[in-house]
Amino acid sequence: MAAIPVPAERHRLPLSTISDAELVPLAMVGDEPAIRAIVQRHNQRLFRTARAVIRSDWEAEDVVQAAYVKAFTNLATFRGEAELSTWLTRITLNEALGRVRAQKNTTGLEEIDMQTTSPGGRVLQFPSSLSPADPEAELSRSQARHLLEHAVDELPDDFRAVFVLRDVEGMSTDETASYLGIKPETAKTRLHRARKMMRQSIEKQLSGAFQALFPFDGARCASMADRVIAALRQTS
User: Which of 15, 48, 209, 227 is most buried per CB count within 10 Å?
Assistant: First the structure.
């Protein structure tokens, strides 16, 4: 479908109890609460996915908004053969990669060959949790998050995407490989090297989890729903 109407909100939905499968038919007919519920439910993953490809918060938000508009105006093509989150993530990734290709005359992430470990470099194991830092040197949670985000931004493009999808979003190797259009073996190698680079950057400075990376919640999350609704109204 070329576009969907977005009528004014007529009722409130119990968002916490409604599944994606139940929300999709409502969103297809332009039900605004359903559209908002889908947007707010998937903002975190889609923002992190876009941010993994495009190292700019504002541009990643723009990518996510464009992906939502594309998804909602083509919702009739969603067959339910995969999870809605999977479908939305693929659209977001394609949108982000398309922008990178348009900006730079370089090969896309899915076309980069598997790299080998640098000669002479010793591969370090990346533990599931980092060792506690000295109390006097321990950074606050906010400082740690910003330092981690900076370390992720410094990763090469092909390694950064794999790292975010695997270690931040918790996807499996096969899922990550499928999203990026690469072999599972390639995804494993890139993740291994990305972890090595990350550990070298942060292991002596902080401890904590990666779940706090690139937050997209609160007012920021809600405003995305507002912008998507406004954009959809312009297409009708």
Answer: 48
